[in-house]
Sequence to fold (358 residues):
Amino acid sequence: MASITISNVTKAFGDVVVLREFNEVFHDKEFVTLLGPSGCGKTTMLRMIAGFEKPTTGEIKIGDRVVSGAGTFVPPEKRGIGMVFQSYAVWPHMNVFDNVAYPLKIAKRPKEEIKRKVEHILEIVHLSQYAERFPMQLSGGQQQRVALGRALIAEPSVLLLDEPLSNLDAKLRESMRFEIKQIQRDFGITVVYVTHDQTEAMAMSDRIFVINRGVIQQVGSPTEVYRKPANQFVADFVGTINFLRGEVKNGRIELAGLGQSIPYDGIYKGKVVVAIRPENMSLLPTDKASLTGKLTRTFYLGDVTDCRVDVGGGQYLRLVADSRSYDSLTEDQELTVYIDDFLVYEDDGREDHTKIIT
Fold:
């Protein structure tokens, strides 16, 4: 069993606390993603699981074994983990076969076993035909596969991945996401994945842990985190969203500075923030809610048309329209924006929750 139990873990560097009272269990064979902006503490948590950092307080267990805690510290090489870094960290003087075989050679395993296991891993990561090549002869994606194969060769119970795809181009990142997920399923191992890329987190995870300033903001499946964000930070960080301030009055939200309102029968009273995803608006009539505005910009993206609409008061909405509408839309066109769904939060007074993403 390769669950990871994190109990009351806090990490501080001097007077700076980077993680506060982290209490979670990552379950056996689960794909967990730690998601958050740079400096939020996600990589620090990964490094503590790996054994490269010690918790200031608290305890970490892998399975039933305490690996970090009061009076106990198991070094990284004895934790039964594999780790893949953002920088690949492959040996430039070794060919692909020797890079992948390295952990087994250090463990002094028999040559026949090394050959058999390396050939099997190279087949899994689609590098069998490159076994004799050196890293300088490989693309970035191939080098990342070498690092992944080397991490898997020792059959770890836990695989830790620290932003492994951030140096790859967009198409390669997309293909590698699915390959890593498939490998995790095939091997049946527990994966802890660190990223600031919400698309990676959404595509790969069983559960996402959204972290900000060292504190977990929300834990949930990709659909839960995206559709029901726990607060405005999560709503803003995961996906694209528009924020509009308003006030609840007589079954409607009067939107500040717009002279417009939308119907509302929820639990909040007084000042609120309305959050609307671009894909939850359309130019086709619905019977839910609507706003009027002026189309200011359109961007043709192939599969969709990305629009900016001035709704008044210096505020803009970003919405996604059918790509076929691009030729029929003109800038400065007056139109009605129909809202299929929206979220409402109590207004916390923060200015960064009222801006549109441009």
